[in-house]
Design goal:
4-stranded parallel sheet; 4-stranded antiparallel sheet
């Protein structure tokens, strides 16, 4: 019988077991980006956390389905598109493509589904209609608002009192300042709108995720995730509107990762990385700096629920950690690992089974490497490959090629052509793809040359 997996549930504040609705199937929904700009390295943390959680659940015999949405209609998209003088849909498509390319650099595969808000308007309208019918929402001059006081459980997820809440929205036609928008009436300065029973317009942010999650995973699914900055108001509103409209909870476990913090914050002050603060480092730049292996390991070195401090020095230390593992792996042979090391494999898995403790798992993995190094050369690598595979790093045990592989050379040729055509955007994208494969491009008079990271 498989071991129980416990995860921290934000609503209850306790560790609770993963409890599938059906057999071994586990639905995971993690809130993805609003695509108005390229994502920064902080945005990558939930992508890494929930991609690796899916890997671990599959390792443990579950059948996970991982859904990560893309918000492609939003106030921020309209504002940036107006500033750039382009249609909002064009900006959203451009930034969606950039998001997919940037997260591909992480080498963790794609989620099982990546729904777009603009492709889910029908289910969004249906959920809003259900809320109006049940008396939890009302139309006002083409807008529709959720009536917060109509739902007694509001505030249970974020553990906040009604009198302390602020939705951060302008009053508009709201009956109560606590209420939040489900649908926003068409405005002259916005260039996308859809027909609905209460008037032409577009969805609010919170209702999009409720509809996309229900459409792909059903109700009462197993794990809803995202950054801790989303607990209120976004996830609180998601939880309330779904349960109010459907009579069933949206998710069983609400799982939140901590933020990426910057070292230049003053003592006692936290400064998360965010576009609004103008202190971002692009994901593709972080990958190019030390390689995808270092960045994935950097995230694994911190517990997902805790904030993690980012710096070039910490990323370089993670790269050195990667090299130690890779170098140790060169002494090993394929095949079963020594029996004496099996307890360390069990410690690795036990750490992940208790609130996905990747630092604890890495400690067991590092001890496995040290003990294997003390033993006779040629010990079997089976356990190490298994553990690294759960963390998305099994490639560290693959033989390193003598030179760039054919795939990298083909990308370099395409980049040289793009540079010749002065297509700098394509050239930059191809440079990032090469960085994801572990190769840095050094440009010279004779063209680009590939050199390995590190």
């Amino acid at each position: 019988m498989a071991e129980e997996i416990l995860l921290h549930d934000t609503r209850s504040g306790t560790l609770v077991p993963v409890s599938p609705r059906e057999g071994r199937k586990v639905g995971i929904y993690a809130c993805g980006p609003t695509v108005y700009d390229r994502i920064h390295v902080g945005n990558a943390r939930p992508f890494v956390v929930f991609s690796l959680l899916r890997r671990f659940l599959a390792h443990e015999g579950y059948e996970p389905t991982f859904v990560a949405n893309i918000t492609d209609v939003n106030d921020k998209i309209y504002a940036v598109a107006r500033a750039r003088g382009v249609p909002s849909g064009e900006l959203a498509r451009e930034m969606t493509a950039a998001y997919l390319a940037d997260t591909d650099l992480l080498g963790l595969g794609r989620p099982d589904a990546e729904p777009r808000a603009t492709e889910t308007i029908g289910p969004i309208v249906a959920l809003i209609a259900a809320l109006i019918e049940r008396g939890h929402a009302y139309a006002a001059a083409g807008d529709v608002y959720f009536a917060v006081r109509s739902f007694p459980g509001y505030g249970a997820l974020s553990h906040r009192r009604l009198e302390d809440l602020d939705q951060g929205e302008e009053a508009g036609g709201k009956r109560d300042p606590l209420d939040f928008a489900l649908w926003k009436a068409e405005k002259p300065e916005e260039d996308t709108a859809w027909d609905a029973p209460w008037g032409r317009g577009r969805p609010g942010w919170h209702i999009e995720c409720s509809a996309m999650a229900e459409e792909l995973l059903g109700l009462d699914f197993e794990i809803h995730g995202g950054g801790s900055d989303l607990v209120f108001p976004h996830h609180e509103n998601e939880a309330a509107q779904t349960e109010a409209g459907r009579g069933v909870p949206l998710a069983r476990i609400w799982m939140h990762n901590g933020m990426l913090r910057l070292p230049q914050a003053r003592p006692g002050e936290e400064a998360k990385m965010s576009k609004s603060l103008g202190n971002v480092l692009g994901l593709r730049d972080a990958v190019a700096a030390e390689g995808r292996d270092a960045l994935v390991l950097f995230f694994c070195e911190g517990h997902y629920r805790q904030p993690v401090d980012y710096s070039a020095e910490r990323l370089a230390a993670a790269a050195a950690h990667v090299r130690r593992i890779r170098e140790a792996g060169r002494r090993l042979t394929p095949g079963p690992s020594p029996a004496a090391l099996r307890p360390l494999r069990e410690r690795f898995l036990a750490a992940l089974r208790r609130d996905f403790n990747t630092p604890g798992a890495l400690a067991a993995l590092d001890e496995w490497v040290r003990e294997a190094n003390r033993g006779p050369a040629g010990a079997g690598s089976e356990d190490l490959r298994e553990m690294l595979g759960v963390l998305g790093l099994a490639n560290l045990l693959d033989p390193e090629p003598d030179g760039p592989p054919a795939e990298a050379l083909a990308l370099l040729a395409r980049r040289e052509h793009a540079r010749g055509e002065r297509d700098w955007a394509t050239a930059d994208a191809l440079r990032d793809e090469l960085a994801g494969l572990g190769w840095v491009v050094r440009d010279g008079a004779a063209g680009g040359e590939l050199v390995p990271h590190g």
